[in-house]
């Protein structure tokens, strides 16, 4: 299920190109031997090309009690983020800047393919590791690390100077993961912050890329954007028995061009890293375009829904529509509006 | 510098955070926007509005606002960040000889989702007769006080003042217990008689308070 369409991107001047699903289909039809011969990358297990993102589904204001929330799905990876705040900060003496706190948890049923327990891929079984795994118990190491990754990725985008003595809490819950959950969490959290009305410099979008070399001596790196769990890890499937490789994640705020976070698992040399990072940056820009479009559509169609009122008295849809009409002036804006 | 994709869709008057919406050479930056490198960008998701300038020669102001999310202009329970100069509505929790401890309930018409603590020091209660001010003759626990934020204070509380004629006690109940056993506050709601006293309308007994000057418009 998806409600965001991968937009067309000008590909001519870019090193790595990301194509829409329809372009790939058209190319396949034209060219029976398969994908672009220049790359000679075989298709992936789920039929995507090496530079094709998974279809994205975004829902906003999913957790209506929170200040803001978003839900993001990339096929089988499903992430839910709720944002609370800004609220008064109790822990320190006066601070003139706000603080962003992130709590990243896996749900008990979010198992990933490459757990050492040796269960099969998909993450649909009801088993859990350690009593009270996600949500309830203390954070596991990877959850703590992911919390740090996500909060650092988002910090640069929040106008913290406008939130003295305040804290903004970001709660991430991975409902199901099939690879790319940290990247998805970052993008989803950025949407939740925007939905909450917290003042931002811009949106942060994220993308992960797996890079591997099929044989050790050659140093010819192959990259695949938005890898599934199977493609991320292990010697089977996506890596085609590659000896060396790793997954690189990148979070980008396109408004300023800032890369707000980079993380890597595995082993890559500089060339592989470079290729992977470039592709991840392109992917992040595409995700950003999807996120932005979805926010605008949401604002236009549904407005704030019931979430913005904290249960203290609901406006009817008509009241809200009337108020929205009053607020919107159809004056044309300066030509800079793009 | 990377720029945002070219289409603003579906409607030109909605902006997402980070969208570039104007130039500082032709507009002022209003609430919901920020300035960077000579351009004005949206800080929040909302409708873009152009406000005509109040003074001649000023530039029109670009503003982004979301009517569904409460801010200082829209009512509703929300998390608003207090700033110096804001006038807030508070309830007195306890008093000492030197200061009054209050709980900040609302900013204008925005009820805070989570109350904060504030302090009104003896020196900040009134702008005349400072030496003779006694806190128990200005505030009592349970009073509702309108005050202005003086400083963001420390982690525990904000610092507030009532040293203006429009600030001070706006609602208080008298000491006298009602016959029927009464509500929590005890006595009857008092009416203001001067800047330093309020009166129980039935018993006519007055009690000292630092009273806010009643204004015609509701806030």
Descriptive overview:
The complex is a heterodimer of chains A (338) and B (219). In chain A, 26% of the residues lie in helices and 22% in strands. Chain A is α+β, with helices and mostly antiparallel strands and 338 residues long. Chain A has one domain: GHMP Kinase, N-terminal domain (Ribosomal Protein S5, domain 2, 2-Layer Sandwich). In chain A, the strands form two sheets. Chain A has a five-stranded mixed β-sheet. A four-stranded antiparallel β-sheet of chain A has the order 7-6-8-9, with helices on both faces. In chain A, helix 2 (141-155) packs across helix 3 and helix 3 (181-196) runs parallel beside helix 5 (270-301). Residues 7-17, 31-40, 113-135, 235-241, 305-316 and 329-338 of chain A have low confidence and may be disordered. Chain B starts with 13 loop residues before the first strand and ends in an 11-residue tail after the last strand. With 219 residues, chain B is mainly beta. Chain B folds into two domains: 10-65, OB fold (Dihydrolipoamide Acetyltransferase, E2P); 78-219, Nucleic acid-binding proteins (OB fold (Dihydrolipoamide Acetyltransferase, E2P), Beta Barrel). In chain B, strand 14 and strand 15 form a beta hairpin. Chain B is built from no helices and 16 strands. At the A-B interface, strand 3, helix 3, helix 5 and helix 6 of A face strand 2, strand 6 and strand 10 of B. Chain A: One of its GO terms (biological process) is rRNA processing. Chain A: Belongs to the RNase PH family. Chain A: This is Exoribonuclease, phosphorolytic domain 1.
């Amino acid at each position: 299920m998806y409600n965001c369409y991968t937009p067309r991107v000008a590909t001519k001047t870019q090193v790595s190109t990301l194509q829409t699903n329809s372009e790939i289909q058209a190319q396949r039809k034209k060219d029976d031997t398969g994908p672009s011969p220049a790359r000679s990358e075989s298709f992936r297990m789920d039929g995507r090309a090496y530079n094709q993102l998974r279809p994205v589904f975004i829902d906003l204001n999913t957790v209506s009690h929170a200040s803001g929330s978003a839900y993001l799905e990339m096929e089988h990876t499903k992430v839910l983020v709720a944002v609370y705040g800004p609220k008064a900060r109790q822990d320190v003496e006066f601070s003139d800047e706000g603080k962003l706190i992130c709590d990243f948890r896996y749900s008990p049923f979010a198992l990933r393919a490459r757990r050492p327990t040796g269960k099969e891929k998909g993450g649909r079984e009801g088993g859990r590791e350690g009593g009270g795994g996600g949500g309830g118990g203390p954070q596991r190491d990877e959850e703590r690390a992911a919390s740090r990754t996500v909060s650092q990725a988002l910090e640069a985008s929040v106008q913290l100077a406008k939130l003295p003595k305040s804290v903004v809490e970001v709660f991430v819950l991975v409902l199901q993961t099939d690879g790319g959950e940290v990247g998805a969490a970052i993008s989803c959290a950025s949407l939740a912050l925007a939905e909450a009305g917290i003042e931002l410099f811009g949106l942060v979008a994220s993308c992960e890329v797996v890079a591997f070399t099929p044989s050790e001596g050659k140093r010819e790196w192959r990259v695949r954007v938005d890898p599934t769990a199977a493609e991320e890890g292990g010697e089977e499937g996506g890596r085609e028995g590659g000896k060396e490789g790793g997954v690189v994640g990148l979070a980008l705020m396109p408004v300023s061009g800032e890369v707000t976070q980079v993380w890597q698992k595995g082993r890559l040399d500089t060339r592989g890293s470079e290729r992977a990072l470039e592709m991840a940056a392109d992917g992040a820009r595409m995700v950003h375009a999807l996120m932005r479009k979805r926010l605008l559509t949401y604002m236009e169609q549904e407005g704030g829904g019931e979430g913005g009122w904290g249960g203290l008295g609901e406006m009817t849809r008509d009241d809200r529509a009337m108020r929205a009409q009053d607020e919107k002036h159809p004056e044309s804006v300066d030509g800079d509006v793009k | 510098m990377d720029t945002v994709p070219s289409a603003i869709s579906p409607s030109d008057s909605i902006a997402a955070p980070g969208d570039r919406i104007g130039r500082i050479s032709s507009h002022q930056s209003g609430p919901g926007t920020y300035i960077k490198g000579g351009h004005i960008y949206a800080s929040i998701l909302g409708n873009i509005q152009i406000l005509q300038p109040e003074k001649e020669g000023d530039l029109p102001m670009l503003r982004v606002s979301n009517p569904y999310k409460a801010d200082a202009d829209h009512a509703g329970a929300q998390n608003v960040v207090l700033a110096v100069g804001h006038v807030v509505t508070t309830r007195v929790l306890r008093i000492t000889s030197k200061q009054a401890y209050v709980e900040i309930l609302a900013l204008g018409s925005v009820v805070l989702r989570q109350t904060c603590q504030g302090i009104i020091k003896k020196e900040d209660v009134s702008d005349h007769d400072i030496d003779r001010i006694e806190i128990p003759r200005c505030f009592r626990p349970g009073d509702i006080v309108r005050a202005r934020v003086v400083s963001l204070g420390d982690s525990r509380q904000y610092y507030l003042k009532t040293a203006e004629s429009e600030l001070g006690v706006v609602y208080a109940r008298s000491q006298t217990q009602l016959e029927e056993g009464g509500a929590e506050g005890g006595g009857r709601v008092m009416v203001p008689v001067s800047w330093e006293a309020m009166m129980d309308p039935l018993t006519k007994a007055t009690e000292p308070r630092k009273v806010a000057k009643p204004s015609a418009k509701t806030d």
